[in-house]
Specification:
- This protein is mainly beta and 61 residues long.
- It has a domain at 11-40.
- It is built from one helix and three strands.
- The chain has one helix spanning 28-34; strands at residues 4-13, 42-53, 56-57.
- A three-stranded antiparallel β-sheet has the order 1-2-3, with no helix packed on it.
- The protein is elongated and about 55 Å long.
Amino acid sequence: MAKVKVKYLVEVEQDIDWPDDEMDDFTYDNLLWNCDTDDAHTKKVTEIVTLNVNGKPHTFQ
């Protein structure tokens, strides 16, 4: 059985209810901290970054 290891990018969309009284602390880092792929309602693989089969790089012809 081949061992396949793949790294890929996923595009997700999530609606976050951000409290109005916390908008002063609304920063990029805080937003990243609150992103949760389990709560995302749209998920789509957008790009395969790396692919190895049995420990060796693989490309499709």
